[in-house]
């Protein structure tokens, strides 16, 4: 995976860029709009590669509903089981997270109207970052078809696992003839409006009608492990406040 000189600046620390700062940025509405039928043309398959259980909803929970409505074939790839999210927690030991987090994903997809989608669960080590790239790239290349559209987290998203998925998918798409679409998740945290490190020239905005947005919001409530504070350690929720609201805008942004 290529190194990037700004790695030290893409840290997920503190509150991050407040959501109201993003909402007040005129450039957000200037991003050209795109439809689900353009992102995934009729007859094409969408492959959603999620670093952790919940990333598929946080990143593209609105798009998933639109793709289901238009009858697109979907394949979900769960890269890790997300069992390293609560280090040292008596309430959320790794064994429990390994069991519960995939269940939360399944419940969230049911809320979105996807009752029994196709899953490929890879069980790669959570938090392994760049080390997972060779195996993930090879595995994905065997699964992808020419004409697939692959959705995953952005190569410069700031989280090592997110970035590894972006680079792995880029390599697998190049090898297979699939199309790569990247989605910022934690990028909204460390970046700022107009940030030159983000590829705004590749950005497209998928508008979400209010019923779609509200179902995405409801689906995210299924992730108690991530949305609730941990009283056993005193740590706050992993995804809450601005971190959650930044991903509940009336549009989703995709880097094509």
TrEMBL record:
It comes from the Bacteria. The keyword Hydrolase applies. InterPro entries: GlcNAc_PI_deacetylase-related (IPR003737), LmbE-like_dom_sf (IPR024078). Gene3D superfamilies: LmbE-like (3.40.50.10320). One of its GO terms (molecular function) is hydrolase activity. PANTHER family: BLR3841 PROTEIN, N-ACETYLGLUCOSAMINYL-PHOSPHATIDYLINOSITOL DE-N-ACETYLASE-RELATED. This is PIG-L family deacetylase. It comes from Janthinobacterium lividum. Its EC number is 3.5.1.-. It is an enzyme of class 3 (hydrolase). Keywords: Hydrolase.
């Amino acid at each position: 995976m290529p190194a990037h000189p700004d790695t030290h600046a893409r840290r997920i620390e503190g509150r991050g860029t407040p959501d109201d700062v993003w909402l007040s940025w005129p450039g957000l509405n200037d991003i050209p709009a795109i439809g689900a039928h353009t992102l995934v043309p009729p007859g094409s398959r969408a492959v959603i590669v999620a670093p952790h259980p919940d990333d598929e909803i946080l990143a593209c929970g609105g798009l998933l509903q639109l793709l289901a409505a238009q009858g697109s074939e979907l394949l979900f790839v769960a890269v890790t089981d997300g069992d390293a999210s609560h280090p040292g927690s008596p309430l959320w030991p790794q064994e429990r997270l390994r069991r519960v987090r995939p269940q939360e994903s399944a419940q969230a997809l049911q809320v979105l109207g996807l009752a029994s989608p196709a899953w490929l669960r890879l069980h790669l080590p959570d938090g392994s970052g760049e080390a997972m790239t060779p195996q993930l790239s090879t595995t994905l290349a065997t699964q992808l078809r020419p004409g697939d559209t692959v959705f995953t987290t952005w190569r410069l998203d700031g989280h090592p696992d997110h970035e590894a998925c972006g680079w792995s998918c880029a390599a697998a798409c190049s090898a297979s003839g699939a199309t790569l679409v990247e989605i910022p998740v934690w990028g909204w945290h460390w970046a700022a409006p107009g940030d030159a490190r983000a590829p705004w020239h590749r950005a497209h905005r998928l508008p979400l009608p209010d019923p779609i947005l509200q179902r995405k919001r409801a689906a995210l409530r299924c992730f108690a492990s991530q949305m609730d504070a941990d009283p056993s350690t005193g740590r706050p929720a992993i995804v809450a406040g601005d971190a959650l609201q930044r991903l509940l805008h009336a549009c989703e942004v995709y880097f094509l």
